[in-house]
Amino acid sequence: MVNPVLLIAVPLGLAFAIPIFGLISKRLEKYIPVVGMLFNLVLSIYLIPKALAHPIVVSIGGWSPPFCINLFVGPVGVFFSAIIALVGLLVSIYALDYIKEGDTGKYHMLFLLLLAGAQGVVLTGDIFNLFVFYEILCISSYALVGFLRDRDGLEAAIKYLVQGSIGTGLVLTGIAFIYGLYGTLNMADIARHINSIKPAANFITLALIITGLGVEAAIFPMNAWLPDAHSSAPSSISAILSGIAIEVGVYAMARVIFTIFGATDILGFIALIGIITLLIGEMSALKQNNIKRMLAYSSTGQIGLIVFAFAIATSYGIEGGLFQILNHSLSKALLFLAAGYMIYRTGSMEISSLEGMGKKMPFTSLGFTIGAFSLVGLPPFAGFASKFLIVKAALIKGGGLYTCLIVLALFGTVIEGAYFFRVVQVLYFKGKGGTLARQEAPFAALLPFLVLVLLIVFIGVYPGPVEHVLNSAASEFIHRIAYIQGVLR
Amino acid sequence: MVAMVLIVIMLIAALVAAALKDLLGAVVVATLVSLITAILFYFLQAPDVAMAEASIGAALETVIFVIAIRKTERFEDK
Amino acid sequence: MNFLYANTYYIAAFGLIFIGLYIVMAKRNLVKVIIGLSFVDSGINLLLISIGYIKGGTAPIFSRPDISPLKMVDPVPQALVLTAIVIGVAVLALALSLVVRLYQEYGTLDIRKIRGLKW
Amino acid sequence: MRKIIALILLAMLLWGISKPISNIPFGMNKINVAKHYITKDISETGAANVVTSVVVLYRGFDTLGEVTILFIAAIGLASILYLPKKRVPDNPPVEDSSLILRTGCRFLFPLILLFGTYIFVHGHLTPGGGFQGGAIIASGFALMSLSCKERILSTVRLGVVESLAGLTFVTVGLIGLATGGYFLLNFLPKGTLNMLFSAGIIPVIYVAIGFKVGSELAGIIGNLMERTQ
């Protein structure tokens, strides 16, 4: 039996050790994140069948759960930690060649710590511990957004920092109220006590925490930082921020709403907020001429769809939301990584400057196209399966509200299709070659493209095994009593 | 009673820090706020936290602020 | 008056949080905004410690043998606040380094004159 | 305009927080989980300072996260203020501080270091611990770099101290995992109450934290002073 705490401890330890490896050889530094994430990927895949059979609860320090911090590694935990490790591994391979300027050793440390923070958030079973790992995730993203030290990056970083700090302040206030009301910080223990005190106090506490976490998850109206931060960071970091960071924010919100508070009565409102986020994101993306800003706004839209799917709160709905998280992580990482090398070659972020890239960088363009098709939801890619599940869930749930909202969501998908097809058209069918010679991205970038494309196609054609994991994960969110009993035996 | 007087001073100092155009002055007043917070922690039977707030919140944050202001500018423009 | 007297520390904590939030939202100078963030942090720390306080309690340290464990104030908020103080100084240092770099780029700390900073 | 919006938002927030806070009376005994900590502390951890045993043992994972956050801030600050080798600014020659100031600081500096070390070594017995002691040590270095204008510690050396201290923390946790099956398990003997060498791994971890916090904060101040014009 391998202890899942290694999923967090090993990346942290390796990140602390990077300066020491750097003394031996500067070239060694960039391989450390690859090693760490490879370890995490192997371990989390090894843990998947065990966690599906029975959730693994480990305590830290050797006391029984309400008295110490515990990790809860259920289906949701292994699902997220496998995604984080997979995307982290591919992006760290990509970064081997991509990150050349600046203090590269520090980049790799911050990158590995960001992923360790994300792992901690999805595995922990203690609300203050969740806050601490959430801060690790946030603070390393502030630093990485400003890593290029150009004007856009610095502005985006300080904007993100101020808004994020207010958000985490609200979360901490909420945690203080929880501690004052219930005298405990263990999530299962809070969940056990939650119905014992006045509903108004619970509601305000929930609202504070949700608002604070919503800043990182970029839910409307707290999404003002996202387009700047995601578009001005280095492309490898944009891929991580879009593919992992905001999803982890959504995970934290879902955990607080479903497991801790069991607050199913506010879900109609959350669904509405999700659809507003979706429409605002997609409409803004349609207007952009800058490819990275377009992808960033598209992330806002996708997060809206994911939040909507979670708010349906049936087994199908949550399954669809989790499936969409998987699809969005893979596709958006692929899109940002492919766009990164195209921008590197042309030296411009304007969509019009990408004319004829289909001939000059065929593999990169093909990767971008497949990512775009999957995100729009065309068969046979992964996006089709996930969007199909969400539509099915909304229709089964029925009711005027959800039917109207799913129509609006489909309208958003149409807009999404419009702007992605415009880019694909520019890539393949416009321009006459231009001055650039044909030159592909280096092998370290093509390998992640290949893996991501294969995964997207494979999951789209053969969604069975993934749906099996997601099914258990959805029931972990729905059955909070089982969660409580699993921790407080 | 002492605590009440200190709290009133602290809140007034925070408002003064908000109003001052001289950033260095604002930082000094903010240090006063931190110090009074540290004393309040001590009154609330939290000596560990009082020490941390006095050494980190009052001393080091002020040093960092003063260095940053020296590297930038001292007065908030209209 | 009795209400004020009973909740002095809560009022102090929320007063500090609100003054800090007001500075962040209304002021236009970046250093001022960061001073506001540090006020918010201090206020939340004070709130946590006041939540853990018990009237007539002693500090949670067995410094003398005659101290009874049942009279101690709650140690957990104090541990949380130690964490929160360090997080606060970390965010503050990072924020000020960004501010210094922005000043080198733009020569101003006014968020109206920095192109992308309108919140 | 934005002032009015700010005040409206704050008024809404004030109305909101009045609900939960009215359910949390000030000064009343609300202890639930913490009762375990204060009643069982001596028998389970052997530390006289309950806050310390909560910080290092019961909630040790938070503390690992917390030192990580400070580490992130230190390296994030260094990467944002990073200047390529050629462009290191020649700071305009600063007037030397007066002889009295320099001598006074040189005299105070070892005393401050000693005080900081005392604080973090005695964390499990008296108020204080790794964070407070580390901050005091860092303030000693800040005093030296402000008064004497000379670099005492190189960035590389500070980085190595940070790394080793962080690795110590993680390694202690992993030894606990290997010997007893729990990460951060207190695997050393608890000793007798109120002795310096007691309370198991608490002094070890607090010394590591003290070095780490001290070097990180000193590095933050040093980088802010030197890497910018």
What does this structure look like?
The complex is a heterotetramer of chains A (489), B (78), C (119) and D (229). Chain A is an all-alpha fold. Chain A has a domain at 148-487. In chain A, 77% of the residues lie in helices and 2% in strands. In chain A, strands 1-2 form a two-stranded antiparallel sheet. In chain A, α9 packs across α12 and α12 packs antiparallel against α13 (315-346). The longest helix of chain B is centred in the last third of the chain and has 25 residues, at 47-71. Chain B is flat. In chain C, α3 (30-52) runs antiparallel to α4 (75-106). The radius of gyration of chain C is 19 Å and the shape is elongated. Chain C has helices spanning 2-6, 8-26, 30-52, 75-106. The longest helix of chain C has 32 residues, at 75-106. By secondary structure, chain D is an all-alpha fold. Chain D is built from 8 helices and no strands. Classes of the chains: A mainly alpha (489), B mainly alpha (78), C mainly alpha (119), D mainly alpha (229). Chains in contact: A-C, A-D, B-C, B-D, C-D. At the A-D interface, α1, α4, α5, α6 and α8 of A face α1, α2, α4 and α7 of D.
Entry keywords:
heterotetramer, B: 78 residues, mainly alpha, 3 helices, C: 119 residues, Helix Hairpins, 4 helices, 66% helix, elongated
CATH T-level topology of chain C: Helix Hairpins
- Report the sheet-strand fraction of chain C: under 5%
* Secondary-structure element string of chain B: HHH
* Number of structurally distinct domains of chain C: 1
- What is the count of structural domains of chain B? 1
Helix-strand pattern of chain C: HHHH
Q: Indicate the radius of gyration of chain B in whole angstroms.
A: 14 Å
List the quaternary state of the chains: heterotetramer
Helix fraction bin of chain C: 55-70%
Structural class of chain B: mainly alpha
CATH class of chain C: Mainly Alpha
Distance between the termini of chain C: 39 Å
Total of DSSP H or I helical runs spanning 4+ residues of chain C: 4
Question: What best-fitting shape of chain C do the alpha-carbon axes yield?
Answer: elongated
CATH architecture grouping of chain C:
Orthogonal Bundle
Strand tally of chain B, please?
0
> What is the C-alpha radius of gyration of chain C, as a whole number of Å?
19 Å
Identify the biggest protein-protein contact and residues per side.
A-D, 71 and 58 residues
Category from helices, strands and their pairing of chain C: mainly alpha
Q: Can you give the mean pLDDT of chain C? A: 85
